[in-house]
Amino acid sequence: MQEEGPSFTPIAWPLLLSQIPRPEDRLNAEEETVPLRRIVLWVLVWVALFVAFGLYFRYARLLTPLLG
């Protein structure tokens, strides 16, 4: 009969559940909320884009002679 080599376990050390981060262990959940300033900034950017597109489509035919 053949001799079998030493048996190895797939895990060399035990897995400690205390090392796995859990969602309730977060220090400050308020950091994940979007600040009001950021929301206002993005709303202003989108409003400016819509106004710019509106003005472009309204006055584009008047700009063509200036460019040509």
Mass-distribution shape: elongated
Could you tell me the number of beta strands? 0
Distance between the termini: 95 Å
Compute the average pLDDT: 76
Order of helices and strands: H
Level of helix content?
40-55%
Characterize the largest beta sheet: strand count, sense, and whether it forms a barrel. none
Q: Work out the radius of gyration.
A: 32 Å
Structure overview:
This protein has one helix and no strands. It is mainly α and 68 residues long.
For this entry, give a set of tags.
single chain, 68 residues
Brief write-up:
With 68 residues, the chain is mostly helical. It contains one helix and no strands.
Write the layout of secondary structure elements.
Elements: H1 36-67
